[in-house]
Amino acid sequence: MVESGDFKQLIAGAYPSLTTNQKKVADYLLNNMREAAFLSVTDIGDRCGASKATVVRFAQELGFQGFIDFREKLSAAVNSEFDYLARLPLRGDNHFDSLFMVAKQDVDNINETINSLNPESVRVVIDAILTARTVFAAGLGISHLLSDILSYTLSQVSVRSFSLRHDFQSFAEQLHQVTPDDLLILFSFPPYSSETIVLASEASKRKIRVVAITNKMTAPVTEYADYVLPVKSDNLIYTNSIASCLVIINAFATEIAIRNKQQALKHLQNTNDAMTRSGLFFEKDHP
Prior knowledge:
Layout: H1 4-14, H2 20-31, H3 33-36, H4 41-48, H5 52-61, H6 67-79, H7 82-85, H8 98-116, H9 119-131, E1 135-138, H10 142-155, E2 161-163, H11 171-174, E3 183-188, H12 194-205, E4 209-214, E5 227-230, H13 243-259, H14 261-277
Parallel strand pairs: 1-2, 1-3, 3-4, 4-5
Helix pairs in contact: 2-4, 2-5, 4-5, 10-13, 13-14
């Protein structure tokens, strides 16, 4: 059974060769795949501002016989997900309470992220983390917070990792620290920072491997990325939700700890011993 995540990968792979109007269809599908699975060719064209012929040619460009063939396979994939999407039930007596509204949105984000990600893509990124001399992370705004969290979390499982700062030095000035033996992980969410895009571009020119964690496969940073992990960041207000990113970061650390159990445990023990000797742990209750 083909999954909707495979459709997104297929569309993203074909995206550079699509015409301008076909890219309108691709953009709509990447963001509205479940809705599109049950729409007619006319409805999809109306929603993205493309002609029926463009929608049909788009389906053929992806390797399907036509729109009907494309929609049948997409519908089957979407239908197969519904049971899975109910695995994280959320209950609240007051559906207008912001606590439950935000929680439901984040649950939806996490579900859609897990469903759309290709497990093989995640495995390849973890392999890249483990084979890198050093992992550098970067981003601006809330993405800078995520880069700090990623760097800290990886360091807890004995991965040499640093977050590029954005204070007295620009990203471009710090890029000289990064070599082709390293890995650069970039967080980029709307509104996209031009400095992050430039960093990705310069890193690519220097043959530095780039991982992009962003909200869609066609985000600007993906043009320069070797690996792309799309995550849902929808929020009820104007900021991006970080819930899905935190799941991904935790998954990285968990898988790395499982693969390198002895090394991770040794690092944890050494850290605990150092903090105990320094008196940084509070070991007794207050009187």
